[in-house]
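Suppose you are handed only these lines of text.
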Amino acid sequence: MNLLIMGPPGSGKGTQSKLIVEKYGITHISTGDIFRQAIKDKTELGYLVQSYMDKGEYVPDDIVVEVLEDRLAEDDCKDGFLLDGYPRTIYQAVKLEQMLTQLGMHIDHVLKIDVEPYVLVKRRAGRRVCMSCGASYHLEFKPPKTKGACDACGHAIVQRADDTEETAFKRLDIYLKSTYPLVEYYDAKEKLRNIHGFGTIERVFFRINREMDKYDNN
Ligand code: ADP
Ligand code: ADP
Ligand code: ZN
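From them, the structure of the protein bound to zinc ion can be written out as follows.
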């Protein structure tokens, strides 16, 4: 089974993705995580994408498409994957379809998480991520067991550079302009599954499962 998850910045895509891939045993592909890792590793890709990300702007399509093409060709994608944060433009969606056709694959469901703007602000403001392994927390809603330290690896948890108030709003704006049109694109293909994103992490995951259970996912 191959899935996409979409939603505004801070809606809970990364958090739900972790739970979904665990349940279905599929591979989690987050373009945001790939870019953050590249920046941390100081690779050429990292240098290319950092200024866009810090400003809250999208990385240019040609760079993202190339990264995704390489990632999808890896073996662990053959038994199913969940794409988190890709596609973000119609161009990326069209490219994805071409790549999958070549690989003899297709997308089964597009999960769209809807959250009110004021909830998004709270989620992004309290978001903290591990500097080392990228695990994500929330000061209020998903605090680590030890204050300031990652449960998984013990390293410090910090605020993302693009979670400042100014950048956060800019990202929401870009999402509405560039990514929201994908809703219509996938709805026309009858792939769109709308998920209410308010309530606890468990509650949202329950709704995702309930939606998925409507389909035969074998
Ligand atoms: P969020 O949690 O805000 O939804 P991500 O962690 O998925 O964001 O991505 C962080 C940043 O990485 C984006 O703001 C953008 O700069 C870049 N990025 C990730 N995926 C893409 C993509 N598919 N197209 C363009 N830029 C991307
Ligand atoms: P995205 O990947 O869409 O940008 P994240 O999964 O990183 O979003 O979630 C943003 C922040 O909100 C994180 O700090 C996360 O722990 C927290 N969070 C995610 N889902 C919920 C929820 N249902 N209720 C409260 N906080 C949540
Ligand atoms: Zn960690």
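What can we learn from it? Residues 9, 13, 30-32, 35, 52-53, 56-59, 64, 85-86, 88, 92, 162, 171 surround adenosine-5'-diphosphate (ligand 1) (CB under 6 Å). The chain has a mean pLDDT of 95.
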